[in-house]
Write a structure and sequence with these properties.
453 residues, alpha/beta, Rossmann fold, 2 domains, five-stranded parallel beta sheet, globular, EC 5.3.1.9
Length: 453
């Protein structure tokens, strides 16, 4: 198995019999996942690891971009950018031997005029291309960013060249972006209809930006394929395959409803953000679910550490640990030991960090926080692919064990409906007046002025 889940430290909190009680349900849900007997229209992410033809097409476009531009702007929100950004940040040291690849800029995941303007200023005079990612093409944040950046690209290189520098990753048949791509002749990739946004990192949504940046996407897919094969191998112990998902379920039943995804390597911060979306959108429904929170150690131990150690006991913790360090740095000797670090001289930073990890694990466990670890032998494309597939399969099982549909996200529409009404979108007139009446009771009138200035 490319990565290892270490749940031995949960023994003070979970008895073996508690795992055994869940195994009948696990067998049923496992069969449904493997054979797509239920929710087949949501399980296309299981098949993307076999799509070799897609890899070839992605690689072809990525190589073209590497030869013609020095910046690729990726426009998307949620799953349309979080997975690619996570893998890119985590694997950045792999690019140290790669020269002349475009920089990757992510935008369209907010509506900050300051950020958008800053990017547009940086792009002026640069050779850049746009990869706009959206199933519909009408999601507000990326749609605004695309309008602005498309206009900038046309101003820089003209309409015809701009069309050659825009790549649309969207629905294969329908939606505004698909219609625009077909009309304008943009290069395009299809997002499989059976793949939800938060499960799309191993489709062209994530693969094109990563390949353009020089990441080995073949190794990424190989790692995911091996992890999928491990979960589907009936010779392997079913409990061990799903121990992480089972542990989450048992802990939730005992009142632990906040999961800390704790990373000791700053490069994994983006992975933590991806995990937050994956689990929050999959499980936060019907007034139920585990709240995922990303923490960065040892940094956050100097802010959140006090609460984790002695605050309310609704937390459990999953640590992400990398066994092999990419860089080898040791503490140098000093003529005079004024800082008291003499006992660490000659020790590697990775070893010191490992002892910190062990210390945190023991302290938090002693403080009433159940702690487990997911261990990667090293951080490369192969193991990153395995990590992504591990969590996707785990949340598919975990959500069902919690009695939640893990593949939809109806709640994300609530803010959009209010926003559309307040912005004056046609068809929302009655709702707009209702919302404005409510807002008058606690929002000053200046905030209700029309948007044009």
């Amino acid at each position: 198995m490319p990565i290892t889940y270490d749940g031995k430290t949960l023994s003070p909190y979970i008895e073996d019999v508690e795992y055994d009680r869940l195994l009948p349900a696990v067998r049923i849900f496992h069969e449904q996942i493997v054979h797509k007997a239920r929710d087949a229209k949501y399980l296309g992410w299981l098949d993307v690891v076999e799509a070799r033809d897609v890899l070839l097409e992605v690689r072809k476009v990525a190589e073209m971009l590497q030869k013609t531009v020095d910046v690729l702007v990726v426009i998307g929100i949620g799953g349309s950018y979080l997975g690619a950004r996570a893998a890119l940040e985590a694997l950045s040291p792999e690019l140290k031997h790669t020269s002349n690849v475009p920089a990757i800029e992510f935008i369209g995941h907010h509506m900050s005029a300051w950020e958008l303007n800053g990017l547009m200023q940086r792009l002026k005079g640069r050779h850049f291309a746009i990869n706009v990612i959206s199933k519909s093409g009408t999601t507000t944040e990326p749609a605004i960013a695309f309008r602005l950046l498309k206009d900038l690209l046309i101003a820089e290189v003209g309409e015809e060249e701009a069309k050659r520098r825009i790549i649309a990753t969207t629905d294969p048949k329908q939606g505004a972006l698909r219609a625009m791509a077909d009309k304008e002749g943009y290069t395009s990739f299809a997002i499989p209809p059976e793949v939800g946004g938060r499960f799309s990192v191993l489709t062209p949504v994530g693969l094109l930006p990563l390949a353009t940046a020089g990441i080995d996407i073949e190794a990424l897919i190989d790692g995911a394929r091996v992890m999928k094969a491990h979960f589907f191998d009936e010779k392997e112990d079913l409990l061990e395959r799903y121990r992480y998902a089972l542990s989450r379920t048992v802990l939730y039943q005992k009142g632990y409803d906040v999961e800390l995804f704790s990373c000791f390597e700053p490069r994994l911060a983006g992975v933590g953000d991806w995990l937050v979306q994956l689990f929050a959108e999959s499980e936060g429904k019907n007034r139920r679910g585990i709240l995922p929170v990303r923490t960065q150690y040892t940094t956050d131990l100097h802010s959140l550490g006090q609460y984790i150690q002695e605050g309310r006991r609704m937390l459990f913790e999953t640590m992400l640990w990398i066994e092999e360090a990419d860089a080898h740095i040791t503490v140098p000797p000093a003529k005079v030991d004024l800082d008291g670090l003499g006992y660490l001289e000659g020790m590697s930073l990775h070893w010191i960090q490992e002892q910190a990890m062990h210390g945190v694990m023991l302290a938090h466990s002693d403080g009433g926080v159940p702690v487990s670890r997911l261990v990667l032998p090293k951080l490369d494309a192969y193991h990153m692919g395995a990590l992504l597939m591990f969590f996707e399969l785990s949340v598919a099982m975990s959500g069902q064990l919690l009695g939640i549909h893990p593949f939809n996200q109806p709640g994300v529409e609530a803010y959009k409906q209010n926003m559309f009404a307040l912005l004056g979108k046609p068809g929302y007139e009655a709702k707009r007046e209702e919302l404005r009446r409510r807002l008058r009771s606690f929002v000053n009138e200046g905030s209700e002025r029309e948007g044009s200035e």
